[in-house]
Give the backbone structure.
Amino acid sequence: MQATPKTRHTTVTAVLCDMDNTLFDLVGAKREACRCVVDYLGAGDPEALFLQFLRGVHGFENHANIRDYLEALGVYEQAAFEVCCRTYEDVKLKMVEAYPGVDETLRRLADAGVGLAVVTDAESFQARRRLDRSGLAGYFEVVVTPEVSGKRKPEPDSLIYALRRLDTAPGEAMMVGDSLVRDIAPGRQIGTTTAFAAYGDWRPNRPVEIEADIILRNFAELIGHVGIPGR
């Protein structure tokens, strides 16, 4: 997929960021959490447990996925299930760490007066925990979750809500995310510049019909595209 840069006639005054796998590696954290759960059980396969969360049956973060896995293994007990859930959450959060360059890039954007918002499908509680853990919470004026906007991406409601809170028109904003379907498509729909965080895209196949204006090899490349001068 080739980038198709948009000719801009306005300055980017706001950046909307997806959170998981855009600011930090949540999939890697989930895989390590699944490994620790399997270690506790002494049975099963970490990747098989991870795949439970991708089925779309209970949701990407729902503990019912762990319950289903324990039942499939024939080892379900309520006490063990509770330990597995605690282990999963504790390890996953412990592994959350901002990608290289994210902290510095957000600081430079904030110092330049660029409005910053997180637009995520994570629950509000999980979003706050991860942003606090990664040390990034203080950079964002607005954090929009489905509980706030009433819709999940790729519906554009969360993006529109963030722009209203930042008092920014879509044409003056950039949407950054690791999913062409859930981040780039709604950004294009409402008229923002779109930046695809290719470094965080863990999915095996990319929809060729969705193109971003910018393809990022790392988060720090945002600086050049937003127009913040180098040191």
User: Anything to note?
Assistant: The first helix runs from residue 26 to 41. The beta strands are 14-17, 115-119, 142-144, 173-177, 193-197, 214-216. The CA atoms of residues 27 and 43 lie 22 Å apart.
